[in-house]
Amino acid sequence: MLFNSLHFLLFFFFTTFAYYSLPPRRRWMLLLIVSCYFYMAFILAYIAILGVVILIDYVAGLYIERAHGSRRRLLLIISLVANIGLLAFFKYYDFFNEQLTALLSGLSMQNPIPMLGDILPGIVLPIGLSFHTFQSISYTIEVYRGKQQAEKKLGVYALYVLFYPQLVAGPIERPQNMLHQFHEYHPFNWSQVRYGLLLIAGGFFKKVVIADRMALVVDPAFGNAGSTNGSTLLLAAVFYSIQIYCDFSGYTDIAIGAGQVLGIKMMRNFDTPYLSASIAEFWRRWHISLSTWFRDYVYIPLGGNRKSVARTYLNTFTVFGLSGLWHGADWKFIIWGLLHGFYLVIGQMWSQRSSSRFVAMTEKSVVGGMPAYRINQLLTFALVTFTWVFFRAASTSDAFLILGKIASVNDYLPVQTMIEPAEIAFCTLLIGLLVVEPRWIRFTERVTNRDFWVAMVLLLSVCYFFGVFTANQFIYFQF
Questions:
Q1: Which of 206, 235, 248, 245 is nearest to 418 (CA)?
Q2: Domain ranges, ordered by start, for the chain
Q3: Cα(269)–Cα(251) distance, rounded to whole angstroms?
Q4: Torsion angle, CA of 44/46/50/52, rounded to 10 degrees?
Q5: In whole angstroms, what is the distance from residue 229 CA to residue 245 CA?
Q6: Average pLDDT of the residues in 44-53
Q7: H helix or E strand, kind and range, residue 371
Q8: CA distance 67 to 275
């Protein structure tokens, strides 16, 4: 069920009405039922796969809490193997099998292992598998560390994994934030509902007005890279940076807003990342739930920055290589992740060798008449946009082709797109609106009743008259 569909709107209003009509002790049951329905609306059979993993982690959590020593660690390993094994089977089986085939071919040997499609014809990656796998892993690890009590109710734990707003694309929540909320009473609070509805409307605006409009330029350019000139590809690369942000943060806004309407608070997943002045700052603002997940469960256990300098750099590359692989079973995603790791390592080296006065540039610093902070923001955006080419391209070879055309001065012919110049100008105006997004965030947090209705009418009108309604799936659904 897509958020940008009439089906979801009807589902959302029915769920909200039923939720506040039920006695508090029954509400979690309703949320579990509707969350199952929400997930089954994609592919019915995959709810059974998710159910098996939920049962394994639920039982593992109970036994981990009571166990001691090596038995406790063994139970955690069993849970991790079940989760990671399921993810690896569906998402990485064919990828690693292809690498094995290439390796054996180089040795003049054949790979006897069949591809997944030959074993299970018609199988596809379950929607949101990477997200709810990581959320399940965080639960068992936190129970193992003694930072979270094991959930005694199977249904409540299932709801923690299945909660429909963040089920397929996050935020990747921690059990400390979510589980207790499903046991608590949430009375109807109009100011809270008002805030949630504004988040939802703002998310729809980002998705259907900005992201899907950018796709009108991005999709044809990246889909026909061989016949598209460098100037058009450069425009498409910049537009894709905006598209993926508005698409993903738009989903997150709708998800957090839907939870907020029910009185359930989820973590913030984006903090105006394109206003960052460094790659390190970008990753503190982009997909916060994922970056903190890798920090807490991979980077710090590997030693973080507590070891030698060389070990710190290796840990950084490891985390971002895994982050790329998490996004997709393809070398282009791994390259995307390693490029960000490279940026961060270069930044760390630069910080160590430069004076703190030079590195910690502020908006008051001036280089050539322009604030140095603004230059850093533009440079950060350019570096991130460069990596997004690998993320969006159909293949690694296509990514290098696109970057080669963008870098070629001789390939800079007039921009050629299927949309009118006025539409491109409108897209540029929409991009400019993102600069004032921090003001919108502050507005939603303390909106008055009168301003709420004005903003809602305005947002819904703009979505209706300027939205691109092609039922485009959210980009991060594929992960």
A1: 235
A2: 6-185, 191-277+361-478
A3: 10
A4: 100
A5: 25
A6: 85
A7: strand 370-371
A8: 47
User: Which carries the bigger pLDDT value, residue 476 or residue 117?
Assistant: 117
- Helix intervals (H) in 110-189: 116-119, 129-144, 154-162, 175-178
pLDDT value for 289: 95
- Digit-coded pLDDT (tens) for 218-267: 999 999 988 888 889 999 999 999 999 999 999 999 999 999 999 999 99
CA pair distance 479, 472, nearest whole angstrom: 15
By the 8 A CB rule, do 138 and 176 touch?
A: no
d(CA 31, CA 162): 9
The whole model's pTM is what?
0.90
Residues across the chain: 479
- For residues 234 and 247, the answer to whether their CB atoms sit within 8 Å is no
Q: Which two tokens stand for residue 313?
A: 């750099």
Average pLDDT value for the chain: 88
Q: Say yes or no to pLDDT of 368 above 80.
A: no
**Residue in 272, 289, 260, 130 with CA at minimum distance from that of residue 206:** 272
Q: Which two tokens stand for residue 415?
A: 């921009």
Closest C-alpha to 250, from 212, 277, 217? 212
Q: What angle do CA 329, 335, 338 make, to 5 degrees?
A: 115
Q: Which of 197, 107, 137 is nearest to 457 (CA)?
A: 197
Q: Catalytic positions, please?
A: 327
Tell me which amino acid residue 399 is.
Answer: A
The stretch 429-433 carries a mean pLDDT of: 87
Q: How far is 253 from 201, CA to CA, in rounded Å?
A: 9
Per-residue CA distances from 99 to 66, 102, 272 (Å)? 42, 5, 38
Say how far apart CA 126 and CA 143 lie, in whole Å.
26
Take residue 408 and report the two structure tokens written for it.
Answer: 């070629």
Q: Is the peptide bond before 273 cis (omega within 30 degrees of 0)?
A: no
H helices within 205-353, ranges in order?
212-223, 230-261, 279-285, 288-294, 309-327, 331-353
Rounded-to-integer distance, Cα 263 and Cα 283, Å: 28
CA-to-CA dists, residue 280 to 273, 326, 336, 346, angstroms: 10, 19, 15, 11
pLDDT at 433: 85
DSSP symbol at 475: G
DSSP letter assigned to residue 15? H
- What is the pLDDT at residue 370? 58
Q: In whole angstroms, how far apart are CA 336 and each of 196, 373, 386, 420?
A: 34, 25, 9, 32
CA 91/CA 111 separation, integer angstroms:
19
